[in-house]
Amino acid sequence: MLSKSAFTVSLLATFLAAGTALAEPTRLLTQPAVSADHLAFVYAGDLWLTDRDGLSPRRLTTSPAEENNPYFSPGGQHIAFAADYEGNTDVYVISVDGGNPERLTWHPGSDTPVGWSADGEAVAFVSRRETDHGRSGQLYHVPVSGGAPVKQMEARFFRGQWDESGERLAYIDHGPAYNGLYGGSAGWRGYRGGTSPSIRILNPESGELQAIEGERVNDLNPLWFGDYVLFISDREDKVFNLFLFNPETEELVRLTDQKTWDIRWASRRGNHVVYEAGGQLHEFDIGTQTERTLAISLNPDLPQKQAGWKNVRGQIQDIGLSPNGKRAVVTARGEVFTVPVEHGSTRNLTVTDDVREYTGLWSPTGQHVAWIVESLDGQTLVVADQSGLEETREFEIGPDFYSLLAWDGEQDRIVFEDNRMRLHSIELESGDVEELARSPRQGGFDVSFSPDGRYLAYTLRQPNYLRDLRIHDFETGDVETVSDGMADVASPAFSPDGSYLYFAASTNAGPTRFSLDMTSQERPFRAGLYALVLQQDGESPLAPRTGDEEAASDEDEDKDDEDNGEGSDEKPAKTIDFDGLMARKVALPVALGNYSNLSVAHDGALFYMERVQPGATVELPGESSAQDNELKRFDFEEREASSVLTGLNGYQMAAAGKHLLILRDSGVLAVAEVGDSLKPENLDLSDLRMYIDPAREWAQIFDEGWRFQKE
What number of other Cβ atoms are within 10 A of residue 72's Cβ? Predict the structure, then answer.
């Protein structure tokens, strides 16, 4: 089953060569059905009909909904098919002469036709309406004249066909792990595990059951040829080919010799089998043992190919807020935009529908935006001014897949991670790239720059699945592992004055970190919040207070100067004293909880997320546990935490520490000023639009899909 979304991804095989679409046979024809006079198939999510030799094509259905799984009636005058015209997959029948399809099933579950009854009075279909075993349903018949479906047997059923007498059924009882053959997303070609289906031949009257031998191979698409069973299988070389089985002698013969392309779907009429391979339809003559390719050329109007303007706010991948909360950088559908919070217009900084740009990141100065450009030749880091009008700087960074994590404005340095679990930094002045760390486990890095940019705090997942806290000194090149591997550390965040490094840490995280163990899925995760006093002569943020009057200090005078507009933009430079650093750890007075996303505001208050514990609630359909997530603020003056917002999936703090970009549980983006209470204002994304030429996008998607497989 080829969905229309999948079709738009891969249609380039037909249209990449401009001017040759009419001369070349059309590719991506799928799910053929054959009768004595006609050939039906699916193309671009619609049903098409041609003469028996593939000539005189015409489109039978034109609905924006997807039609698939066509089967001719025994007399060849009608076609049964599946469609989701009304938001649900049901069985429909249409005449080969065209007209409106007639709906036969009405159950809210999915009903998919698999053929017809031998007398042509009913459509056979598979449904999970009574039982659902994950990869199988049960077989039903629904009368073409109308009426309730009738279950044919209690046994599991996935796909199959009655013989011409209606006395025997050849079928498979569950779908393959390679479910991409039937509209799924798994491409487990050559799979040899326990869910590889075998074909069974059943006589319901006598109860006699025969299985075609072949353990741990994929046998699919059974068809009757007199008393023989035709089917497609990958049993010999992991390429699906056509085989013929004699139930009486149990003799098995291979009929076709496809070397590269799988036979994905087959249909028989008389001595001829029409099958799909390599996006084309082929015909095999069982009598003469010959085959030919049917050259079918279509030239339809396709909405999927029409260029035009589209709003892409439903395809946002990355977001960020400018330092002073003036604009948000939004990466959506492979383009980098900046969106005004209050004044101005939305800007597309890239305008390249045939190139994918991703992970847009705002500089701490607010004057530049960085992103990565995807390419077969290697990825490029691009730095552009915020208006998108000046010349850009480009840096080649390698062939892998990267994500930008943080940008230090003091040293003009960006840190980023790749798909090989490595952490890198690049100095934008020289373009030098340095590998900072390599993790033995998947999971990514949490990072934070010190205010002066000398230090980078980051987490590194160890072989025991717990994350250690490490600090890299760019000035000396030294790396200090601060934690001892006995706790899971997350979300380090430097204070604006460089005196403290905050983080979350848990000693009960172990069972939840090994995700393949299903017994750990709903265990509570409890973390505490901590502060490291970075200088030996530093004072704890929770030091006892005497209540005495204090003399004015130089720091107070400097603060007064800043309040009067006389302050400096320079960030405080403080050296970290690593000797005895963990001994200067201070636990904040908060209950243990599911904490993450620590950040520090300009006034020194600590913001963090408290998420709902996994398994704590079971939501109704359409609801989300995120409605109970909380954004909290720890006030060091009051020395207590308070909830400032609920109902959010995440947030980011702007570099200046005065604004927050909030992702609400509804998916809406909002911006709020930092304070002990928040008043978020939704971000207007109505102008997040781009001009899209689908054919140009498909070429890029094809190339990047190939690179995904390669890397």
Answer: 24
List phi, psi (to 5°) of 400.
-85, -170
Residue 552: which pLDDT band, with cuts at 50, 70 and 90?
low
Neighbours of 96 (CB within 10 A): 17
pLDDT bracket for residue 16 (50, 70, 90) = very low
> Are 157 and 170 in contact, with CB atoms under 8 Å apart?
no
> SS3 of 234, please?
coil
SS3 of residue 706 by DSSP: helix
CB 495 within 8 A of CB 532: no
CB-facing half-sphere around the CA of 706: CA atoms within 13 A: 9
Give the pLDDT of residue 14: 38
**Spatial contact of 104 and 117, defined as CB atoms under 8 Å apart:** no
> 535 is written with which tokens?
């200088």
Model confidence, pTM = 0.80
Alpha helices in 430-574, H assignment, sequence order: 510-513, 554-563
Dihedral sign, Cα of residue 535, residue 541, residue 542, residue 546: positive
CB 646 within 8 A of CB 629: yes
Phi then psi dihedrals of residue 683, to 5 deg: -85, 130
Q: Which amino acid would we find at residue 141?
A: H
pLDDT above 90: percentage of residues in the chain: 79
Say how many C-beta atoms besides its own lie within 10 A of residue 649's C-beta: 16
Q: Distance between CA atoms of 542 and 637, rounded to whole angstroms?
A: 9
Q: Which two tokens stand for residue 33?
A: 């059905």
Q: Across 467-538, where does the E strand assignment appear?
A: 467-473, 479-481, 488-494, 500-506, 528-533
Q: What is the DSSP letter of 466?
A: P
Distance CA 460, CA 483 (A): 10
Sign, CA dihedral 352-357-360-366, equals negative
**HSE of 644, CA atoms in CB hemisphere, 13 A:** 24
Band of the pLDDT at 265, cuts 50, 70, 90? very high
Per-residue 3-state assignment (H helix, E strand, C coil) for 579-633: CCCHHHEEECCCCCECEEEEEECCCCCEEEEECCCCCCCCCCCCCCHHHHCEEEE
- C-alpha to C-alpha distance for 635 and 617, rounded to whole angstroms: 30
The DSSP symbol for 75 reads T
Compute the Cα dihedral for 570, 576, 577, 582 and give only its sign: positive
Q: Which of 369, 376, 336 is nearest to 353 (CA)?
A: 336
Q: 188-206: per-residue pLDDT in tens?
A: 889 999 889 999 999 999 9
- Asked if residues 158 and 169 have their Cβ atoms less than 8 Å apart, the reply is no
Looking at the DSSP assignment, which residues form a beta bridge with residue 369? 362, 384
Q: How far apart are CA 388 and CA 366, in angstroms?
A: 13
Q: Which residues contact 266 (CB under 8 A, 6 or more apart)?
A: 32, 221, 223, 230, 232, 242, 273, 274, 275, 276
Location of structure tokens 């209606």: 166
Structure token pair of residue 369: 């935006």
Give me the residue label for tokens 């200067």.
Answer: 584
CA 1 to chain centre: 20
In contact, 74 and 161? CB cutoff 8 Å:
no
% helix / strand / coil in the chain, to the nearest 5? 10, 40, 50
Kindly list the strands in the beta sheet with 67-72, ordered across the sheet, starting from the edge strand earlier in the chain. 67-72, 78-83, 90-95, 98-103
- How far apart CA 227 and CA 555 sit, in angstroms, is 95
Structural contact between residues 660 and 341, judged by C-beta atoms closer than 8 angstroms: no
Other Cβ atoms less than 10 A from the Cβ of 528: the count is: 18
Give the pLDDT confidence of 204-240 residue by residue, as tens digits: 999 999 999 988 999 999 999 999 999 999 999 999 9
Using the predicted structure, report yes or no on whether residue 451 has a pLDDT greater than 90. Answer: yes
What end-to-end distance do the CA atoms of the chain give, in Å? 27
Q: Residue 535, Cβ neighbours under 10 Å: how many?
A: 15
Indicate the helix (H) or strand (E) that contains 569.
Answer: none
> Other CB atoms closer than 10 Å to residue 630's CB: what's the count?
18
